[in-house]
Amino acid sequence: MSKSILVTGGTKGIGWAIVERFAKEGFDIFTCARSEQDLKSLQGHLEERHPGIKVLAMAADLSKKEEVFRFSEAVKSESIPDVLVNNTGIFLPGSLHDEPDGNFEFIMHTNLFSAYHLTRAFAKEMIQRRSGHIFSMGSIAGLTAYPNGGSYAVSKWAMLGMTKSFREELKPHGIKVTSILAGATFTDSWAGAGIPEERFMKSTDVAESVWGAYNLSPQTVVEELIVRPQLGDI
Question: InterPro entries given for it (predicted)?
């Protein structure tokens, strides 16, 4: 029976690289994003390059709880994924003391609450099955506060704490939980920054980190994995 992976925000950057890495290994793919056009492009790419796998690519805005539930029910109608990657995220620069009203709530709902609701949506079935691997895509910003990081940094600190809690709760049930704490990775969010591409990590390197952590023996888990550019943080 084929295995499957659910990756939120799978049409770009790190999410796209993770989807591609696991599709290469024959995993069925469940993913979502806001853009219908990006989803169609991804699905077409996967079906052409990996014709043996199943693909569910669904439009959903995971900053809204009802959209998280709608997406999770669509996935459940197919199967319970073997791997869940909470990758959806947004970065809006600003300082906590003067950022636009509403930024904090929007970022927290997108970056943190989506992962909370989606993990809970599949936890019961994973516990019953006594298997599964949950990844949260955190950030170096969840370890070190920095100017202009604002609500994004808060969301990533909270994500790390939540992931640690899920790790403690789920480890007796055979479910692995891993936090990937990635530094600056070359994605669309850095477009126009004027920084040479070679200064960044590659999204494929982060995907390889997820693949490597997934492939350890059942008695071993990577709890936290810090991945940084060779020359340090940007």
Answer: NAD(P)-bd_dom_sf (IPR036291), Sc_DH/Rdtase_CS (IPR020904), SDR_fam (IPR002347)
